[in-house]
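S1.2 Input.
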Amino acid sequence: VYDGANVAVYVDGAVSGGTAAVSGTIQASGGESLTVGARSIGGGNQFLGSIDELKIYDRPLVATEVQAQAGVTPPSGDLIVYHDFEDPTPASLFDKSGNGNHASTYATQLPPLSSNGPPQFRSPHDGQNSLGIAYYQAGEIPASASINSLTSAISISAWVLLNAGTSGVRPFVSRQGPGGSTSNDRFKLAQWDQRLTFQMGYQDVTDTQVLPKNTWVHVAAVYDGTVARLYKNGVEVTSVTKNGGMAATSPVALLSNLGSDTTPIFIGAEKEDATSWGGYGDMFIDELKIHGRP
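S1.3 Output.
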């Protein structure tokens, strides 16, 4: 983007490498053709790759317009993570919140699909994303300043589909405690013996009814600093009063005082140590969103 005084290059909706001051005007064409994928003179320096959705404007776009072109939701101040799983490759999951909380995916490190196999990602609405059909994955979102800003309230929502009933706790999304502790999670939205549950440390709020199999259900957990609530398809199903916020060292303060914490967020599973994955279930996950408010 050139505004007549400065040039900025955007990658995935974010400025890359800062801006550079440039003086002068864009030189009028000397008769050369506009060429895509190579130099206009001589046809050299071919681009070895693919190009799509090329647009040229006669004015500078503002940052929100560039983000819209990239399919990124501009940061709203409270949307921390948004994964719609409409990614072209299984290697990574692109965060559409505008905060850069992209996820790495792991397929080869997970066991083969079984009755308790790894989660699969696909879209429940348009049927165009076959990612979940070909790959059985778990996602890992590195810690970031925006994730560490979850200090007093949180809302987590997603569409989920269970292919089979599984016992134990099978997380849709979680952030573990210090040192990767799975018994003192900062937060975890999961199925527990097929029932929807939201856990913070040693406390939980759990629905009494099981989730249906082979049916898409919208699930959400909302914590306002005092009360944790669970929702299915937009209807509150249960709630519980919790002691304090969300720090990592105790169930009394599970979110606060994160500071420079490096614990990642996991999607569809959890990492029990440096190399071992666990908690995966035979399920689909889509439209994952995490907000920093109730």
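S1.4 Remarks. Residues 111-118, 123-135, 246-259 have pLDDT under 50 and may be disordered.
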